[in-house]
Amino acid sequence: MEKHEVENILQACACANLRTVSRSLTQLYNQLLQATDLKITQYYMLVNIYQYKKLSISELGEVMMLEQTTITRNVNVLIKNNFVHVEKDERDSRSKCVSLTSVGIEKLYEATPIWMQVQGKIEREIGTSNYHHLLRTLKQVQKIITHYEDM
């Protein structure tokens, strides 16, 4: 491989660049959310459960695009902290449904201003238009990934 090819790979790799930013952003959110005893994944999980009111653990995994083990591990932490309640699904007794407890709703309200602070700073710093362009681009990348997975 030529030197310029190696440099191009190191600079342009979509996966490496997105992982680097994702890791850094995750660390920032986790650091700021530390006072709430939530990690960003758990916070986002609470938001999704709040949105859907009650959904199965597998549906939560689909919505969040996370593996079952990741969902289960995080749901168990949320159960331990009394943020969510899990019960058998009325439609399918083999499935379990998760819903927020009143403590979970309070925790969501406690953490949301912190999330809004970080989110607002990012949007202001790169500009609202650029931020929305970034979101559209990320959705396009996700479509490309989904297309590859369907092949």
From TrEMBL:
Keyword DNA-binding: yes
One family name in Pfam for this protein: MarR
Keyword Transport: no
Domain HTH marR-type: 11-143
Keywords carried by this UniProt record: DNA-binding
Protein name, entry field: DNA-binding MarR family transcriptional regulator
Gene3D superfamilies reported in the protein's UniProt record: Winged helix-like DNA-binding domain superfamily/Winged helix DNA-binding domain
One term of GO molecular function: DNA binding
